[in-house]
Amino acid sequence: MENYIPDIYQKSIYTVDYSKLLSRGIKCLLFDLDNTLMPHKSSEEPKKAKELLVSLKQKGFKIIIVSNSPKKHVSKYKKYFEVDSLHSAMKPFQGKLLKLFTDYNFAVNEVAIIGDQILTDIVGGNKAGITTILVNPASNKDHILSKVGRLIEKRKMKKLRDHDLFCKGRYYD
Fold it and tell me: What is the pLDDT of residue 38?
């Protein structure tokens, strides 16, 4: 069950204490794209998220979008956010994440993943041995596959809550 528990749980990407992450030795932030950096199927440019990523780069973080979405979708936002990316990441499988650490020369203790889904972002990050940060989805709308995942996630969260291991809405860092 521990693969389902995030190291940090915050309301959104805007409430994460990035200074604390820096002090813990985190140098690279992997951001999920849909419903983390921006609402799913949003037609608006996520200006607030871009401002956040610019400020995080100025603090010295390496920012990489890590998404299960295809290249065409991810490339558009890679360019907009002016960051590196990994498309078709196959989260929760950690193979592509581990290769990413090697490609960018980061140790697992220097990397954190930030995402809105326990089954993909948190499980994948925990399996890879990196710091995991769960945030609430940026929107109630989801891709059809994410909707299925949310149903499974809901059952897992109930078990975690019943064992007092994790409770939705009880934020911590």
Answer: 86
